[in-house]
Amino acid sequence: MEYTNEYISPLGKILLASDGHALTGLWFEGQKYFAAKLERDHEEKDLPVFVQVAEWLALYFNGKNPAFTPPLTLKGTPFQKEVWEAMLAIPFGQTTTYAKIAAQIAKHRGLASMSAQAVGSAVAHNPISLIIPCHRVVGSDGSLTGYAGGIEKKEWLLAMERQAPESVI
Question: Between 99 and 40, whose confidence is greater?
Fold first, then answer.
């Protein structure tokens, strides 16, 4: 059984999903692939993990780098999970490129190269937006290519992070 809860952010409603222990989904209302990994049978419920996620989101939307990551359960292919883990390592206020993530995964797997487009597809299907910071992945030329929540949200999130104080709480 999966459970849901709602969070109201400065960028609109966010749907949270959990297996009862960890966060399994975080989507902006109306985003591409909205609730794609959410089980058909689910119920709205208050859970400790949702309290943790709400604390994380409150800190984040107040321009602070949360010093913790709520428990996460990633639902995806092994490749998608590898890309999502790579995104978790992108520091607050910084960006990386699809090509750099592809090169990192290729090196880890002992391959000569890997498709940046394949990485892009995995980034686009990230089920836990914000906490797994897909908004921090940009094109090789620095362009703000694609964001399931919309380019305007990506621009807002990156601008907010750039203006945040350096201190980590």
Answer: 99
Q: Which of 15, 86, 134, 148 is catalytic?
A: 134
d(CA 117, CA 104): 14
Domain hosting 141: range is 78-149
Confirm whether 134 is a catalytic residue: yes
pLDDT reported for residue 143: 83
Crossing angle of helices 98-109/78-88, nearest 10°? Answer: 120
Per-residue pLDDT, averaged over 133-158, amounts to 89
For residue 135, give the DSSP letter.
G
Phi, psi of 17 (to 5 degrees): -130, 150
Does residue 39 sit within a domain?
A: no
Give the CATH number for residue 111: 1.10.10.10
Cα 142 to Cα 117, 145, 151: the distances in Å are: 16, 9, 13
